Amino acid sequence: MIQHFSFKPLFENTQLPGWTISFFYQRERYAAEYLKDGTIQWTGSIPPNEEEVKKMIHELMLYHVYD
């Protein structure tokens, strides 16, 4: 389960899509960029079960950003 999920706009112009995200997963901190097409670019290490984590991130972004 993802914990302490946070996101902020990638660009100063908040009308442009793109966000930096960070969260904890299995007691490790991860960071990435979430692009407008839903692509996730990891800025550090890649979490285990990457596909499962990506699904959780997409759900969180849909809830928080695209509501």
TrEMBL record:
Q: Name one Pfam family in it.
A: DUF5342
Instruction: Name the domain of life this protein comes from.
Output: Bacteria
The cross-references to InterPro entries, in alphabetical order and at most eight, read: UCP037692 (IPR017263)
Write the protein's name: YheE
